[in-house]
Amino acid sequence: MQQQSNSTIKRFFDWYLHASLHVALATTVLVQMTFYFCFLPFNIAITSLVFFGTVFSYNFIKYAQVIAKKKELTRFLKSIIVLSVISLIIALISFLFLDLKAQLLTVFFGLLCVLYVIPLAKSKTNLRNYAGIKIYIVSLCWAGVTTLLPIVNADQTIENDILFKFLQRFILTLILILVFEINDLKYDDIRLKTVPQTIGVLKTKYLIGLLLIPFYFLEFLKVNYYGNQWIINLILVSVIALFTYYANPNRSKYYTLFWVESIPVLWYLLIILFNTHYL
Fold it and tell me: Residues 58-85: pLDDT tens digits?
């Protein structure tokens, strides 16, 4: 009975990860951080759009081509399709409640998502398969959706602080993707020319270390600087450095799919811990 229970929990956990619910949680907590640091009230439309939009877009990217080639769908793929359709409907409803400028920005990121999977005109290559470009597209989308979209929807001016936050999120996403690429080295098509494929695992880790420097010190350039942020970001940088150090192509998929993608959640929890008035 215990073994069956453990097996059920594992199947659900695997489904949770592969159905993109965990990565959606990561993007959503970054949005909540933007609300907090920019003194914005909680917005259900933005929150649900980002969460369910992430679920749909990630599943679309991961499974669209697989599903198109399958003659008979497995139970797992059927459940992913149902979840993705429901997520798309909720995301579209949420989209209707956004400001016009926020809607236009959402459409822009949505088009990037589509072009990421569907080949460009007169070409059989999508943006995902252009050598070296994938990490920048994903980083741009993560930083833009979690930072700029809430600001634009609230009709606030995009000042230097916002640009620093955007750049910080861009760098963070870039770092997390590089850790993913180290972990996925033996699975990735050589034609993708990922960073570890191009410069090697060790140099990629050195690159992550270099990127952690501006990620940390960008905090001190912000006008609205929070006193506890240097501690929070130092803890975060230390955790990322440890994940980077232990990353290698022989690690389990859980290493990145759960633990590495939990870093934004850890960041948010640290903010709550060090700023107990914000719950």
Answer: 998 888 877 777 767 888 899 999 999 9
